[in-house]
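[job 0412] stage=complex_fold ligand=fe (iii) ion status=START
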Amino acid sequence: MAGFPQTPYFIGLNEPVGQEVAFTGLEVEGTIPAEIRGSFYRAVPDPAFPPKFADDHTLSGDGMVSRLSINADGSVDFAMKFVETARHKAEKALGRARFGKYRNPYTDDAEVQGVDRTVANTTPVWHAGKLLMAKEDGLPYRVDPRTLDTIGSYNFGGALKSETMTAHVRVDPVTGEMFFYGYEADGLASTKVAYCVVGADGQLKSEQWFDAPYCAMMHDFTISENYALFPIYPTTADLDRLKAGGEHWHHQPDLNSWLGVMPRYGDVSEIKWFKGPKGVFCYHMMNAWEDADGLLHFDQCLSNTNAFAFIREPSGIQMQPWEIQGGLTRWTVDPRGPAGDVAESVIGPPGDFPVIPAAKQGRPYATGFMLTMNPDRQGPPVFGGPVLAMFDMLVRLDGMDTAQPQITQALPMQPGWCYNEPLHVPSASHEGWLITFVDHQTGENTFEHFAWVLEAGAIAKGPVASIRIPTRLRPQVHGWWVSQAQLDAAE
Ligand code: V55
Ligand code: FE
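[job 0412] stage=complex_fold status=DONE, emitting structure tokens
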């Protein structure tokens, strides 16, 4: 689109789309299984206007919410709308960007000082019949799940005191409670973290504040049946740097990581901080679970640095792509003993976007799925997303409840093809399904997009159905599957 910087974050697959669309009766190749009825919501950053600063990147883009609706009669619709945040409205009013750097309000135009600057672009969270578009730097926006119209900023009916809510909540499959946290809970670069539990009825039941060891980018966390686990990795914020107009985040390779563990219904004063290795970073965790001996296992997509070049480079970290390493990594601690070091083991491939069946959240689990790179690809990966290289292999791991999980199935892609985050859809009779949006580069600057339906027990055989999305899509951040029954029960 015109006027955008010709940097990697705004070209190719990352080129802004900026179009609200609504299509019905999409073309389907194959058959969508009859038990898959509901909506796949997705969150996508898509800047409506060229950024104020040319070195801007993916994470600042205005939130777009889209809905792939698989209807009762098997027909499929797709719609996409901007989240009408206060920021998006303020920029639309003048037809240009008014907010500056990622998470630095000191770089905003004077006239918009004090305006809520979150972009609601990271996860569509479904809980208690409400759809929330969440981003970790602010409060979520509530969106109508049918029309995708924005209802407004959401703070649990005035109950939430934290100024922020993570985009990575965890819903307990047995109690239906939603566990979440907000970091920088009382302002920029603060160490205050709010730990919150929401009842299955959507009411905020508890909010407790604690101090993190330092102000870290806390992107995700986990729960187990009895504990809440707060990982801290050394990508840190500094108020003086923000006031000087600098970046929100610098990665600090010399700082330790930490894993805070507390009984999930306990008091935050009970948090034990277990020490992890220096310099590592993880965006997403697969799960946490307790074994028969009461040990706590925390399974995460860990790297030896922050995966985002736009965070490493301002931090003065010059690493070649091949120096960036990692793998699905387990930290094991004894939550009943004294805090010590985590015990670390690598249990799976490098990659991200882990997914497990919702019923296994916080429980021992046999199977997980994640995205990684096809080691046998004949050519470069598709260029795009915040890392500038898209994943092109989906793997299934089994034996997750053992010390040595194994990759048992894989679906590698051909050059030019790549995956977005898959979601799991349960089945009444087997291990369920995965739905994932895939992108296909057909020319220098041309792409086509599909939603694939895969059988979770047989991913290697490829999609049982492929739905063509008749519009350009930017890379998705996260998605959420909401069944038709959940939609029908919602207010
Ligand atoms: C991430 C995404 C964000 C963000 C912080 O993928 C971290 C990780 C889309 O916004 O603000
Ligand atoms: Fe995320």
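The two ends are 38 Å apart (CA to CA).
[job 0412] exit 0
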